[in-house]
Amino acid sequence: LSGGDASNVDGVVDSAAFIHGIGLRTGDISLMAGDGAGLIWSPRSNVYLYGFTAEVGLYDRLGVLIALGTDWTPSGSMNLQRELQCADYLNHAHYNSYFTDRHLVEMVTQNAAELLGFGDYLGSLVVGKEADIAIFDGRNNIGYRAVIDAQQSDVLLVLRSGTALYGDVAVIDALAPSDGC
């Protein structure tokens, strides 16, 4: 259990997110949805350790917000990109493409920010939110596929609070202030 907005005036947790959620039944998931709790899904680790993962389609149908997260590296993904690709594989191979590409990307952006209690500051490209932005090469894959199918070489730029942290040298150089500006 991990909390979002820590607590209200009475000391009661306002939001919660369950990590993994593989042992929960329909009634449990319904209670989660009714209480506004979310699920942090780590499919690669779940499949590796247990041979199955949470029934994410059921969670979604019952109204539970789902975020995608990595577990630890011995059984999980080494980064969120690989976890996203694992979720995409399971979605197409085992869930009859239940989730759209957009929904999968939202699991690592706005849904994750919301479940961690940062939805007012992070997770979407909205005026007034932190400029935490990743830009992917869209020449080979378009739309949300450019994010899902990206390899490390496809990451053109990563900004945190508007500051370039990583990216293609030409892109970063183009962002550098020129003489006189």
Structure description:
- The protein is α/β, with parallel strands linked by helices and 181 residues long.
- It has helices at residues 26-35, 43-50, 56-61, 80-94, 101-108, 110-115, 145-148, 169-175; strands at 2-3, 16-19, 38-41, 66-68, 133-136, 155-160, 163-167.
- Residues 1-13 have low confidence and may be disordered.
Give descriptors for this structure.
181 residues; alpha/beta; four-stranded mixed β-sheet; three-stranded antiparallel β-sheet; 15% strand
Write the layout of secondary structure elements.
Layout: E1 2-3, E2 16-19, H1 26-35, E3 38-41, H2 43-50, H3 56-61, E4 66-68, H4 80-94, H5 101-108, H6 110-115, E5 133-136, H7 145-148, E6 155-160, E7 163-167, H8 169-175
Parallel strand pairs: 2-3, 3-4
Antiparallel strand pairs: 1-2, 5-6, 6-7
Helix pairs in contact: 4-5
